[in-house]
Amino acid sequence: MGKNNKDFVKEITPMEVDFPQWYTDVIRKTDLVDYSPVKGFMVIKPYGYALWENIQSFLDGRFKDTGHKNCYFPLLIPESLLQKEAEHVEGFAPEVAWVTHGGKEKLAERLCVRPTSETIICSMYSKWLKSYRELPYLYNQWCSVVRWEKSTRPFLRTSEFLWQEGHTLHETYDEAQAETIQMLNIYKEMAEDLLAIPVVTGRKSEREKFAGAYATYTMEALMHDGKALQAGTSHNLGQHFTKAFDISFLDRNGDMQNPYHTSWGVSTRLIGGVIMVHGDNRGLVLPPRLAPNQVVIIPIAQHKEGVLDKAYELKKQLDDMGLRVELDDNENYSPGWKFNEYEMKGVPVRIEIGPRDIKNNQVMVARRDTLEKEAVSMDGLAENINRLLETIQKDMLEKARKHRDANTYYVESFEDFKEKMEEKPGFAKAMWCGDRECEEHVKAETGATIRCIPFEQEDLGGKCHFCGKEAKHMVYMAKAY
Amino acid sequence: MGKNNKDFVKEITPMEVDFPQWYTDVIRKTDLVDYSPVKGFMVIKPYGYALWENIQSFLDGRFKDTGHKNCYFPLLIPESLLQKEAEHVEGFAPEVAWVTHGGKEKLAERLCVRPTSETIICSMYSKWLKSYRELPYLYNQWCSVVRWEKSTRPFLRTSEFLWQEGHTLHETYDEAQAETIQMLNIYKEMAEDLLAIPVVTGRKSEREKFAGAYATYTMEALMHDGKALQAGTSHNLGQHFTKAFDISFLDRNGDMQNPYHTSWGVSTRLIGGVIMVHGDNRGLVLPPRLAPNQVVIIPIAQHKEGVLDKAYELKKQLDDMGLRVELDDNENYSPGWKFNEYEMKGVPVRIEIGPRDIKNNQVMVARRDTLEKEAVSMDGLAENINRLLETIQKDMLEKARKHRDANTYYVESFEDFKEKMEEKPGFAKAMWCGDRECEEHVKAETGATIRCIPFEQEDLGGKCHFCGKEAKHMVYMAKAY
Ligand SMILES: [Zn+2]
Ligand SMILES: [Zn+2]
Fold first, then answer.
1. How far from the centroid of its chain's Cα atoms is residue A327's Cα?
2. Whole-number mean pLDDT of chain A?
3. Contact A71 B99 (CB under 8 A)
4. In B11-148, which ranges are continuous DSSP H helix?
5. B19-76+119-278 maps to which CATH number?
6. I want to staple A76 with a disulfide (CB 3.0 to 4.6 A). Which of A111, A267, A434, A444 is the partner?
7. Residue of B42, B80, B98, B250 best to disrupt the A interface, most CBs of A under 10 A
8. Are B140 and B164 in contact (CB under 8 A)?
9. Cβ pairs bridging A and B (under 8 Å)
């Protein structure tokens, strides 16, 4: 068993040695995804998809609680629609897939596979909306989108990914702004409560905002290697699209006006974040609320009388508690092999039960997050495991927060920033002048970008840390996925 | 109120006058879908999508109960993969959308937008499968597919539609056959228990089977106008694809062999079936288990003291019973307008509550399916409404079954068949010789096709009703959507 263990772990490159390779190894060994015959397109395998289903279920409930309804807009968008909003077409046209033929016929107009759906949705909203009485429009869709990427990494950047995109219309700017922030807060709640990932929220700089947005808000998470991941965005689109698409309504004063518009989305990229925030050198570590299987029961010496019976009895108790439990009684694999397998797959709690445990009215309980293992009485086991899962969920968020805080620092000067970005990447808090040129310069010199202008501003002095001009905002800087 | 009522109904063409126009009117008036800027592609609006969500929820639960897992395969399929199975490419190549450019670059190989995913999935199965120990593979995906259609009708035939596609691999032919039939039976259960649509199940003729299948099984429903709708199919694909894609495994005897393969799907087309089986000249009639709103409460004279309070109190009682309830207290519309609106939208039960009702400790309860209306005591109302919904669900299936049976007849001769197909379309039971030529001839002469060779065979004589040769099967014939 010890031997198996070592052999197995050897197949995952330690993250300290080569983080990107560690990521690839974990993904490959845990059956989350596979590469497809089309470059940059991935297959999401059942274990990976189950994670997405749990994210969907959490968010879909929160979207509906806040009055949103799901719908479905077409996959293909005419080129002329994509071109209606100037910034938007500039941002997306270089990375879309073009359909030019239907069956044997060449199409009169090219159609793009949706990279995002603002344009097709606005063309419909323009047709539908008449009066303020119909507002707000609060719609969302779950679908896949395609963006032709030059270099791709599973979950983090792929030419096709799964996501949801909300698209809302409102009577006033204030209502649209409130919706934008409400949805960002729902994302933050999901990241922290479901994924156990702490996030910084704030506004994007003009350079980093969504193509066509008035303002983009983001949540940013810090990965194990000190790089940031943009984990979800919510856009106040102002009237940019509603004017370009001639969406108008009769307002309360009897005047025609353009409504205010938002869109917001998260994608399967979140799964990459879960891997890179919680994973270790043994593989995945999944937070209990997200884990497809929260508990795995592994019988020891399962051929001995009574072991399997007792194991199934425990499984039933845990099932009845509403937990997601797997019992692995496959005879083709040893308990040691199974320990490794479920550790690698990140199952939060392992229960071992053998003849000696049964004699002592106990089981062995191992936590995936801390790798601690202890004997636990069979009396009241289900309640104890349920409590343990909640503890693990809380501890994982706390641990990630500590890691994030330990890798967040104040910038002293541009020189200091450059050094730290090389030696100890993480979130750097700095003052910024607000100029795009300064921002471009920092990126060119260091590879780091402004992740956000956080809602929680701190006063770190009056000068821009990068160019010395008068400072406008405190920002979070980092290299990013 | 009477006036409103008439005016309103006038906008839906009576189905006896023009059934296709009735269908279009109902769809348009009830906000289920809209036409998009791309011909043949539709937008599924929230009320239509809510129907699909209920179908998804029912099926996804049954799929998981029977051991299936969800996953996601890429949207785009290389042309070379589509061509690997000869019958399949012949069937689908004429109706696929081709992606030829990614961003500004012309692709080395064209990619088709998936019309169905057997080919891309088999290419992955070929890479994954090693041993019989891994079998069966029981995977499903929820997605959209594109088939370039010349003429389209919302839900029934569109160039893009939403569906699920299950794709399984098995060690033996018998297991694959059992899976094929199991999934067909789950579809039948969904059609009858959720949609209240009775279906005939059986095998497709060689001409009508799926391109590349060994055998296709189908469920067929009869619409109000006497035309059939293929409502779901399950394919035993034998080893056609597993050989073409070189999927093989080490079997229990240590030999390499190709596994047996199934696929099965239902789509948003089911919603078209619900409309055409249950709808009437006032609009939709939704079975309670499928209906997004099962009950609508409409207050009468809602400005009078106590009316809205009592209405909300009733809503809470019904909510607590687990029912899906809407209370419409919009002051901009009259109760009469609302009666029409919710009738048209097919809400199964309407509750009216006004000052006189409150005085009498009663409410008025109207059934959408029978249009009956009666006073019901407020005591125990929630239990009574819950029971009523179950009654409506049962009655709607029964009514649809009676309609189906009344429009199912025995064929006496080819002449008799031709007459009946003209005068009184419906399901015609006939004996058939099994020859494709005979089948083609019948279709050319009458427009009717063999819907299925039903599992429940009847002996209607020894001769083919169409050509007089020796009969092989009893078949259901009909014109179809
Ligand atoms: Zn500066
Ligand atoms: Zn014949």
1. 29
2. 95
3. no
4. 19-29, 46-65, 79-82, 86-92, 118-128
5. 3.30.930.10
6. A111
7. B98
8. yes
9. 153
Q: Among partner residues A43, A124, A146, which is closest to B34 by beta-carbon distance? A: A124
How is domain B295-390 classified at the architecture level of CATH? Answer: 3-Layer(aba) Sandwich (3.40)
pLDDT given at position B7: 47
**Chain B residues touching residue A42 (CB < 8 angstroms):** 74
Q: Do B70 and A50 touch (CB under 8 A)?
A: yes
Whether A166 has a pLDDT exceeding 50, the answer reads yes
The whole-angstrom distance between residue A287's C-alpha and the CA centroid of its chain comes to 13
Q: Do B69 and A81 touch (CB under 8 A)?
A: no
Kindly tell me if the per-residue pLDDT of B8 is higher than 60: no
Kindly give, in sequence order, each residue whose CB lies less than 8 Å from that of residue A219, ignoring residues fewer than 6 positions away.
Answer: A184, A187, A188, A191, A199, A200, A201, A230, A231, A232, A233
State chain A's maximal CA–CA distance in angstroms: 82
Q: Is A346 left (phi over 0), alpha (psi -120 to 50) or beta?
A: left
* pLDDT reading at B384 higher than 60: yes
User: B99 and A103: CB-CB below 8 Å?
Assistant: no
Whether residue A262 contacts residue A132, with contact meaning beta carbons closer than 8 Å, is answered with no
Tell me whether strands A42-44 and A33-35 are parallel, antiparallel or unpaired: antiparallel
- A38 with B77: Cβ contact below 8 A: yes
CA of A175 to the centre of ligand 2 (A): 68
Cross-chain residue pair B46–A99, CB shorter than 8 Å: no
DSSP label at residue A193: I
CATH number of A407-478: 3.30.110.30
- Cα distance from B51 to chain A (closest Cα, Å)? 11
Q: Which residues contact B114 (CB under 8 A, 6 or more apart)?
A: B73, B74, B75, B76, B77, B120, B143, B145, B146
| Segments making up each domain of chain B, as ranges | 19-76+119-278, 295-390, 407-478
Cα angle: A204, vertex A208, A212; to 5 degrees: 95
Bridge partners, B137 (sequence order) = B169
Element (H, E) at B406: helix B381-406
Which of A81, A89, A99 should we substitute to test contact with B (largest number of B Cβ atoms within 10 Å)?
Answer: A99
pLDDT tens column, B415-472: 999 999 999 899 999 999 999 999 999 999 999 999 999 999 999 999 999 999 999 9
The model's pLDDT over B54-72, given as tens digits with 9 standing for 90+, comes to: 999 999 999 999 999 999 9
CA dist., res. B177 & res. B173, Å (int): 6
d(CA B70, CA A341): 21
Residue pair B188/B219 in contact (Cβ under 8 Å)? The answer is yes
CB contact under 8 A, A146 and B71: no
Distance from CA of B32 to the nearest CA of A (A): 10
Residue B13: alpha-carbon gap to chain centroid = 24
DSSP-assigned states of every residue in A440-461: HHHHHHHS-EEEEEESS-----
Q: Closest Cα of chain B to A148: distance in Å?
A: 6
DSSP state of A280: B
Is the predicted pLDDT of residue B2 greater than 80, yes or no?
Answer: no
A42-to-A75, A291, A382, B146, B261 alpha-carbon distances in Å: 18, 21, 38, 19, 23
Report CB contact under 8 Å: A97, B98. no
- Nearest Cβ partner for B43 among A41, A73, A94: A73
- What is the distance between the alpha carbons of residues B77 and B116, in angstroms, rounded to a whole number? 10
Contacts of B49 in chain A (CB under 8 A): 69-72
Q: Which residue has the tokens 């929220």?
A: A201
Under 8 Å CB-to-CB from A294, ≥6 apart: which residues?
A288, A323, A324, A325, A347, A348, A349, A389
Out of A46, A72, A95, the one facing B71 most closely (by C-beta) is A46
Q: Are strands A228-238 and A215-222 parallel, antiparallel or unpaired?
A: antiparallel
* C-beta separation of A203 from A180 below 8 A: no
